[in-house]
Description:
Layout: H1 6-31, H2 36-51, H3 59-64, H4 68-88, H5 93-100, H6 102-114, H7 121-138, H8 146-169, H9 174-195, H10 203-229, H11 232-235, H12 242-254, H13 260-282
Helix pairs in contact: 1-4, 1-10, 1-12, 2-4, 2-9, 2-10, 4-8, 4-9, 5-7, 5-8, 5-12, 6-7, 6-8, 7-13, 8-10, 9-10
Amino acid sequence: MQELRWTSVAFIIFGMSLIPLGDSAGKILAIGGMSPLFIAWSRLSVGFVCLLPFSRLTKTEWRDLFNWRLVFRACLFSGAISCMLSALKTEPIGDVFGVFFIGPIVAYFLAALVLKEPITLARSLLLFAGFGGVLLVVKPGFGMSSGLLLALAAGTLYGCMLVTNRWLAGTYRPRVILLSTLLFGSLLLAPKGLSMLPTQIDGFTIGLVLVSSLASALGNLIIIDANRRLNANVVAPFVYSQLVAAVVLGVLLFSELPDTWSMLGLAIIFASGIWSFLLVKRT
């Protein structure tokens, strides 16, 4: 297995932490009355416009943007981001990210099934423990809400996308994958997003849209690059590092403290992710 260096770990965690930052900006916009579909569309379209001048794509790479495999990834990403932003409109950000962590479990086993990447009994048990933590946050049958169901859908789609990152990484540069996702995601969401265009947009709103777009784009670029160098089931546990940022941002920006069962679930999710990383480090 490829060696994991602490500098690489820090860079991946930084990229992962940018995702909840972008989602926090999106949550502020949604609480202010902006449609989650418009937020998702603006995040993708603004990210594409801002990153394109720095992409230095070749003629071949311009054609590659329209490859069906990249379009498939764009569909997964668009679905995940739309579900995530819709969930954040009504649910605490810490709980949403706790449920979202079904993604690493999906990625771990799907990568083994589709990409034939290795799995171990110890890491499998830890991921199932993490899933138990997800159930404590979701509270199926007695505390589940439609928002948390949307977060569960977002995490499932994101787990599939983590596997496509590894599937595509050996063929395309990270910026090609990201730009294709931003382009086709924005086109896919344009009909709904533009139909919900806000009547008034001020400087504060523009700033939040930029934070939402650029934090998400840069974070995903770092994650794509990590999957180019490491197996998908190695990168997957690092998704848990988003939990710390999500809970901290939830407290600081929204005064959201998870309830007792959710706190226990979040602790289990985080502990299983860290332990899984330590197992990878020793392998």
